[in-house]
Amino acid sequence: MSSVAVRVAGETLLLLPQKALYWPHEKMLVIADIHFGKAAAFRALGVPVPRGTTTENLAGLDALVEAHGARHIAFLGDFLHARAAHASATQQAMLAWRERRRDLQLTLVRGNHDRHAGDPAAALGIDLVDEPHALGPFAFCHHPDLATPGYALAGHIHPVYVLATRFDALRLPCFVVGQDRMILPSFGAFTGGHAIRPEPGDSIYVTSGDAVHCVR
Question: Does the model's pTM come out above 0.85?
Fold first, then answer.
């Protein structure tokens, strides 16, 4: 799979096809909007949606940790989707994953869904912080419109970019790289996306799942 390196705030960051960011200097994966338990929340409301999204999300994290040798994962908010994410099956899967990954440092920057869902189980061993969370030249956020002391890394929007021809259109998850902030695509399975209109100075990098491409 083909990633793209970008230089922001004096640091090199890798935009990964799997809709995640990697900061090599810190051996850190940055994940936005994983929304654990979203499918369970819909099923609790009687909506027939597929099972297995928690397993899919955890497998995705495992693959990235192994591929890059990550030691730290920072979650940019919306770790849990709703209170239904505390359901037994979801929690058991997450705790089993954590037992296998006790060497990883985990940090969660609380997002709007986290405030409604409640904090993750203490047994997951996640450091919980509020936005903006400063580390090096970066401000780790959930919301991309905060005034921050450093270059903001944020999520919340679930950005997708529409590639259109006269006859067809394709919506692809994207990274929005601006002068003062970067918005990451939603990592979670079953989370959808919001078509964005770039602001002046924004670069857009779409991911096909296999490669990242700059389209603007």
Answer: yes
Is residue 47 pLDDT above 50, yes or no? no
Other CB atoms within 10 A of residue 167 CB: 5
- Beta strands 105-109 and 72-75 are parallel
Q: Cβ distance 214 to 203 under 8 Å?
A: yes
Nearest by Cα to 79 from 45, 139, 119: 119
pLDDT tens for residues 157-210? 999 999 887 788 889 999 999 999 999 999 987 667 899 999 999 999 999 999
pLDDT (0 to 100) of residue 169: 82
Residues 6 or more apart in contact with residue 41 via CB below 8 angstroms:
81, 82, 83, 84, 85
Please give the mean pLDDT across all residues of the chain.
89
112 against 32, higher pLDDT? 32
- pLDDT, tens only, 66-102: 999 999 999 999 998 656 555 677 888 999 999 999 9
Contacts of 102-105 with C-beta under 8 Å, sequence gap 24+, read 103/71, 104/65, 104/70, 104/71, 104/72, 104/73, 105/71, 105/72, 105/73
Of 104, 98, 17, 109, which Cα lies nearest the Cα of 65?
104
